[in-house]
Design a protein that fits this description.
Shape: globular
Radius of gyration: 22 Å
Number of helices: 12
Low-confidence stretches: none
Number of strands: 26
Length: 402
Amino acid sequence: MAHVVIVGAGQAGAACAAKLRALGHDGAITMIGAEPAPPYQRPPLSKAYLMGEMEEERLWLRAPEFWAEQDITLRLGAPVTAIDTAARTVTLGAETVAYDELVLTTGSTPRRLPAAIGGDLAGVYTVRTLADVDAMRPEFAAGRRVVIVGGGYIGLEAAAVAAKLGLDVTVLEMAPRILQRVAAPETSAYFRALHTAHGVKVMEETGLDRILGETRVSGVRLANGTELPADFVIVGVGILPGSDLAAAAGIAIDNGIACDAYCHTSAPHVWAAGDCASFPWKEGRLRLESVGNAIDMAEAVAANIMGADTPYVAQPWFWSDQYDCKLQIAGFNAGYDRIVTRGPEGEAVSFWYFRGDDLLAVDAMNDSRAYMVGKRLIETDRSVAPEVVADPATNLKALLKA
């Protein structure tokens, strides 16, 4: 049987390797990861792990013995430096590894602030890897001051942890509102109020001029000239697809590694999945940064390597935990023109995204029922009248039987 090499030992790589074995692949599988840690889950890094509520071993996707039992070779702490699609090899330092099928699950990397504005000072952190969070955890002591640059989900999750631990927290967002790129104004307003209630200073429409300090952070200067003291800074201004390796090998790039509907790349016998990959979506292309997509796309790759010849159909879903709020998102909200609010009922509220009469997505805060119903409707390509959703007398579960 074919030797499958997987470059990237994160959620997508682990899912692909396990699925190949589950589907009966009895050839060699080699998974190569740049980090020294075994495959682990990233979402708890900015939440339970950063809080000190989760040990490292609980992050691991599989027990250490799983990989040996499944005869899956792990090459960790071994970044791949080149791919030769003609020779069907990957290079690790002075070593080359031959493949029959290659799967690229190279994930993503955080955007960093330029060194010219202090982005390389000690005390400036990003939240992406286990090493990132291990490095910043000692900073989280009550009474210290942290400035978080970027009001997306990663920045807000870090802000929630810092506030719960008693730090003085300021969030800077250049856009008119936090979460502007990914959520409706209603969701932004909900989380702005939530963070403000926990003592976080949320500064929107606020640009950063530079981070202050000689060798280590001492504060930040805003675009309007105001200076704020800071003991450390967290940068959460988005991520970039891990596509450089593929691009250097001549593989087509389009907002990440470009895949067709079956997760093939432009190179024969090379596939891609997860944060690094874009795929056909409706009239265009889409790249999803989520655990759900990483798993589902990677398993689709495994199935197609095994001959399924089945297109990948994404079913977007996401989540975020902040304080005692669990946000669950179903669907993809691009192109919405109307928001319908359901609730609040106690601490539960949901925002439903429509384009005309078509339901696109749901943001559900502490409302698992709204999330589950919305997700099922979207996955089965059904909609519901906006006024029905807004009516508090509507039994949501009954909509699934309509």
